Queue: 2 jobs
Job 1
Amino acid sequence: MNSSTLPATKTRSRFAPSTTGPAHPGTLLAALLAWLDIRSRGGHLLLRLEDLDPERCQPQWHDHMLQDLQWLGLDWDEIQRQTERVEAYSDAMEHLAAQGRLYPCTCSRSEIKRLGVRAPDGGWRYPNTCRNAPLPAGGWRAATTPLRIRLEDEDVVVDDESGTPITQNPALEMGDPVALRRDGAFAYNLAAVVDDGLAGVNRIVRGRDLAPSTPTHWQVQALLGYPHPTYRHHLLFLEKNAQKLAKLHGSVGTPELRPHYSPKQLCGFLAYAVGLLSAPEEVSPAELLPAFDWSRVVKEDILIQWDGTQLSKEG
Ligand code: GLU
Ligand code: ZN
């Protein structure tokens, strides 16, 4: 077959919320933007519920998340739950172990924190102290400590579609990422890369708070033999205290918003807040599609307030 007759590779994207609580305005904004992006290019959208953290994730939040996103008027082509995919993560661990890339880390969180060096994501940098420690005789499955992935000490430059390249030496600036946690759960930095790779995700649209993890993911993709997706990191909704509007910070969740907003009113507010509408009209995600273009979405983070009945943006 002539290559010009081959179908173009379909764009495959995903929205990957953690099921640690109700969707908050920042979650809904990220979902709406990922949805508009992929639907405007006729691609495939995977909804991946990131539920591996046994302390923070509860099964009931799965249904809440699905209902909240559906309520807003979003849809997807496929749903995955990370807790159902541990075999895929185990295969990836085998692969990394065979390459000599996994090592046990005996450093406690407080030891790492005591060193006092901040990482680009605001956490504490891990200085790769245990890099030369061997895996236990029984292999990675016999580990009784967290396992980390030994990355290459090299600069990674990711061309973010937003226009600001992400440049980082993840091994040195973040430290080698954890693949298997102390509690036995597979870690985000492993699971997200494996899931994206196996699902053929070739486009990642997500909030700017995740940009500092991208160079780490880039290197793990290479170690596991997955092609690199294209990335676009977008603005965040911030609270007064200049932190992300996150459910964990006591911000308003969808259950408190829903009595005060119809889906179209809330969608209109989100679209207005980021510059897609000049006023907060009532609109569905589908009605935003024809005119959607990233050039119309503001780049700067936006301060949002909730007064108990209404959301408003500052400035
Ligand atoms: N579950 C992550 C979060 O909600 C996002 C993962 C991702 O988009 O890579 O922050
Ligand atoms: Zn260590």
Note: The pocket of zinc ion (ligand 2) is lined by residues 105-107, 129-130 (CB under 6 Å).
Job 2
Amino acid sequence: MSSENQLPLFELGEIELNQPSKNLIPTDGKLPIPPGTYDNLSELSQHCRDCQRCQLAQTRQHVVISRGNPNAKIMIIGEAPGQNEDETGLPFVGRAGQLLDKILDSVKFNREEDIYICNIIKCRPPNNRVPTPEEINACRPYLLEQIRLVNPQIILFAGATAVRGLTGDKRGITKIRGTWMEWEGRLCMAIFHPSYLLRNPSREKGTPKWLMWQDIQEIRRKYDELCT
Ligand code: URA
């Protein structure tokens, strides 16, 4: 084989090395994981469990990927795992999660059947600090793949970090909560994060808990209209 013929082969080899493949996760969080990388959620979960794309890999106990029904029509996206979630590997199992359950129960959503729950990032930030933009960006391709594979009809963002992390919308949660918006062709709504509701327990008219009650009823109404 002449050297002219060999050159393109070497170039091809290099291109392949730079492309994330199913068996190779880019450990640099800035490198992309292209849409369509995963055929299913279990392939994605396997990669997430081995992920080293950001510094949180060093301090986590478990990678927290999801819970609920992968075929659910509603996806809830929270902020980040806390201590209970880090210990168990499941999102929203602590006090905030229990309140979220009650909110869902109140309009007869079954958390295991009707809902798929995940977070903007999959590893606990030390001391539950807010995730950094680098951590959010490193984890983002996994979340985008989860959304593609679950293909929910409705996405709920629990709290401002979730909205900002995915859509870039920097408006405050009190401004945008309760209104339907579109992101990437999907119907979405921001709701208060349940931890915020734990800190604001009043149920009086106009308070966060009261507003949450209005929002979950509207979500139930829309779900019945679109999904049943
Ligand atoms: N808060 C979140 O945003 N996500 C969890 O999984 C738990 C608490």
Note: The pocket of uracil is lined by residues 78-82, 85, 91-92, 94, 96-97, 119 (CB under 6 Å).
